[in-house]
Amino acid sequence: MLLWSLSTLVNYKGTLGALLSDGYAEVTGETKCFELWVLVDADKHEWSKHISISLPPLWKNIVTEDRLYFVGVTGTDEIVLSPRYLSEPYSFYVYYYNNESNTIRRIEIQGMDAFRHCKIRLSLNHVEDVKLLQYI
């Protein structure tokens, strides 16, 4: 497997994985499928195509005009995608795709108007200790 800058490295069930989309870095409503590759043997640089994901027909209706990028994989094996910029009228959605049930969830994050001209990057499993802020 050729790992290139268009793939996104993820933690898939405790193993290094890479998500690829039709040879592009972005995923759109026109995207039909993407692939999840898993590292089998690091010493031999051996990868295995774990899943070839065919997106359901509803995908196009849910994503509409957004250009999405892979964020990662959750602990429940959902693939997370998000745009890098807010879409008009300044709404921001995060998409969760579950390959086992072939379902998509779109979650709106409100209050993002202040970031309409900024590039947005999400990260999974980030935790802040808010208690420390009380003592500053």
What would a concise description of this structure say?
Residues 5-127 form the F-box associated beta-propeller type domain. With 136 residues, the protein is mainly beta.
Describe the structure in your own words.
With 136 residues, the protein is mainly beta. The protein has one domain (8-135). 4% of the residues lie in helices and 40% in strands. It has one helix and eight strands. The protein has one helix at residues 58-63; strands at 8-12, 15-20, 33-41, 46-54, 68-73, 78-83, 92-98, 103-109. The strands form two sheets. Strands 1-2-3-4 form a four-stranded antiparallel beta sheet, with no helix packed on it. Strands 5-6-7-8 form a four-stranded antiparallel beta sheet. The longest helix is centred in the middle third of the chain and has 6 residues, at 58-63. The radius of gyration is 16 Å and the shape is globular. The chain starts with 7 loop residues before the first strand and ends in a 27-residue tail after the last strand. The model has no long low-confidence stretch (mean pLDDT 81).
